[in-house]
């Protein structure tokens, strides 16, 4: 008989305490929320304009508002079991992806805005 514990009985210690996960996620969450707020503000501004928005414009601008939430969720899911600096880098990478997506939406609405307007 073996005296070693079974693999199911051995538990790995957590990479970070819960308070550190919440603190890091909360700080980065503020930046993600800023992108959501900008997207909603831009959506309301475009929708309440003289021409309004067509269905494609609503789709693009609602996606711009939802994308930061999706990116934050994905980055959190990937990084929360890592050490603090890896978790921060994953959230920072997600924030960079959100920033590039937001710039793409702004550039598209500036160049092809007539296709989004009603």
Description:
With 118 residues, the chain is an all-alpha fold. The chain has a domain at 14-24 and 51-118. Helix content is 74%, strand content 0%. It has 4 helices and no strands. It has helices at 18-47, 55-79, 84-111, 113-116. Helix 1 (18-47) runs antiparallel to helix 2 (55-79) and helix 2 (55-79) packs antiparallel against helix 3. It starts with 17 loop residues before the first helix and ends with a helix.
Give the SSE layout.
Elements: H1 18-47, H2 55-79, H3 84-111, H4 113-116
| DSSP helical segment count | 4
What string gives the helices and strands in order?
HHHH
Relative helix content: over 70%
Q: Strand portion, in percent?
A: under 5%
Low-confidence stretches: none
Question: How many beta strands in the DSSP annotation?
Answer: 0
Q: Kindly name the structural category.
A: mainly alpha
Describe the main β-sheet briefly.
none
Q: What's the average pLDDT?
A: 89
Radius of gyration: 21 Å
Distance between the termini: 76 Å
Principal-axis shape: elongated
Q: Quick recap of the structure?
A:
The chain has helices at residues 18-47, 55-79, 84-111, 113-116. The chain has 118 residues and is mostly helical. The chain has a domain at 14-24 and 51-118.
What descriptors fit this protein?
mainly alpha; 74% helix; 118 residues; 4 helices
């Amino acid at each position: 008989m073996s005296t070693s514990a079974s693999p199911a009985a051995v538990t790995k210690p957590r990479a970070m305490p819960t308070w550190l996960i919440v603190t890091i996620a909360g700080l980065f969450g503020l930046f993600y929320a800023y992108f959501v707020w900008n997207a909603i503000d831009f959506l309301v501004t475009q929708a309440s304009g003289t021409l309004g928005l067509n269905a494609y414009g609503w789709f693009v601008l609602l996606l711009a508002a939802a994308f930061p939430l999706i990116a934050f969720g994905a980055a959190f899911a990937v990084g929360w079991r890592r050490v603090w600096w890896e978790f921060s880098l994953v959230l920072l990478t997600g924030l960079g992806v959100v920033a590039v997506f937001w710039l793409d939406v702004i550039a598209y609405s500036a160049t092809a805005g007539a296709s989004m307007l009603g």
